[in-house]
Amino acid sequence: MHTRVCESLILNNWHRDGSVQIFPYGLGKEESMMNLTTGNNPGSSSFIEERLAKKFRKSLPVQVVTVDSIAIQEGWFKDDSPPIYLMKVDVEGYEPIVFQGGMQFQLLQSGKVENILMENSVTDMRQVVDFFATIYKAGYKIKWVSSVNGQAYHPEALSQIEEELSKATVGMELDGVGEALKFLVKVNCNLWWTKR
């Protein structure tokens, strides 16, 4: 996987200015070794084995670290460090676990990340509401929602999403979840979060 990303950077000449950094780790809520389940499509690889058809599954051991540990290692919390203009997280249903990285997720709280692009394919209401509430409380709002193919999903609903997120809290009663958030739980979608 890491090799393929490196090849893509070179083919697209994105390696020349140093503005793109990649790391040979998986991301999770704690440091460990995990099995990455791969298949015919490298883009569908996941730490969640059930997401791939049994006949295509292969297992690859991967060192897993937290986002915060990389931020500390790279000095991203230092006052003179530049902002992180874009953080893309598309990890086939493992997004909430990546963002946990310890529930504080200091990188988000620091305000260093300007934009977050992420996929959401998780359909567990509890997990999604807690996940989105955490990102919102860290100072972000959803600027855009699209299908996984890039078509906009109901841009007119963004104000409703904002209102519902402003009331969402980790552990809230799920019967209080509004229709816009319920929609985001039901559909696979891409989300663009920006700082509020």
UniProtKB/TrEMBL annotation:
SUPFAM superfamilies: S-adenosyl-L-methionine-dependent methyltransferases. Transmembrane segments: none annotated. It comes from the Eukaryota. Pfam families: Methyltransf_21. Residues 15-140 form the Methyltransferase FkbM domain. PANTHER family: EXPRESSED PROTEIN, METHYLTRANSFERASE, FKBM FAMILY PROTEIN. This is Methyltransferase FkbM domain-containing protein. It comes from Cyclotella atomus.
